[in-house]
Write a structure and sequence with these properties.
Chain lengths: ~120, ~140
């Protein structure tokens, strides 16, 4: 059983950067990586990408990989272009002050499954 | 249907725009999602390669009812040793490219994995032509 992205945002004390999008969508799996080529090798279903890489290619990679949610770790600066692209491609974008490791640990403990 | 796009070398802001456009067209054509994903991942990695390594490039995607053939031609340094470049982990990417989340030597192997048929021609000092052909029906 997964979690709603809205509940994930709450437990990560995260800011929702695309509030217009559906926050009730279910997340079952998570994949944490800063290497976009690695993300592009996977098959994803109801997955959130957790990354410290805050640039347009993180959103593009999610789009190509059919990933519906992206969490930016450590409150890295997120550009307006990233937010606009995420909104346009229907990808929920949230930002948390927690580290990649801490976010991954919290999600794992909450029952979110690894992809590999 | 023929779709054409231009890629600017070093233009990481627009890298992926063509792949995104092709994805939208394939969705409208009701191509199965898993088939779309293979096409766009192969194309996206190719776009990133052109942005990362070449001066400029052009994409032509020919879509018919059964298959898509994508040809990406670039003007650039070419690939000196294609066999070596196809090996996972081999990379000549710059620090800037690595900072964008690429350049780990996974691009070409990933393009191959997601192509039903892949043909690469490269001439040093002139450029590279990548041709990807994928079935669109299960």
């Amino acid at each position: 059983m997964g979690m709603q992205i809205n509940d994930i945002a709450n437990i990560l004390k995260a800011s929702v950067l695309t509030p217009e999008l559906d926050m009730s969508k279910e997340v079952v799996h998570a994949f944490s990586s800063d290497l976009m080529s690695d993300v592009l090798t996977g098959d994803y279903y109801k997955t959130v990408l957790v990354t410290g890489l805050s640039n347009l290619q993180a959103i593009r990679t999610a789009e190509m990989s059919d990933i519906d949610h992206v969490i930016i770790a450590r409150n890295k600066v997120v550009s307006q272009a990233m937010i606009d692209l995420a909104r346009d491609r229907n990808i929920v974008l949230i930002s948390s002050g927690y580290s990649l490791f801490r976010i991954s640990g919290i999600l794992y403990k909450s029952g979110i499954k690894p992809v590999f | 249907m023929v779709l054409k796009y231009h890629i600017g070398g070093g233009d990481f802001v627009n890298a992926g725009k063509a792949s995104s456009a092709v994805k939208s067209v394939l969705k409208q054509l009701n191509v199965p999602q898993a088939r779309i994903k293979r096409v766009v991942i192969a194309l996206y990695e190719t776009e990133v390669n052109v942005v990362a390594h070449a001066r400029e490039g052009d994409i032509e995607a020919v879509i018919d009812s059964n298959k898509v053939t994508i040809t990406v031609k670039d003007i650039g340094p070419g690939i000196p040793d294609l066999e070596e470049a196809m090996k996972e982990g081999f990379s000549t990417a710059s620090r800037e490219v690595r900072e964008m989340g690429f350049g780990a030597g996974m691009g070409l192997p990933n393009i191959k994995r997601n192509s039903d048929d892949l043909h690469i021609e490269s001439v040093q000092g002139q450029g590279t032509i990548v041709r990807i052909t994928n079935d669109l029906k299960d």
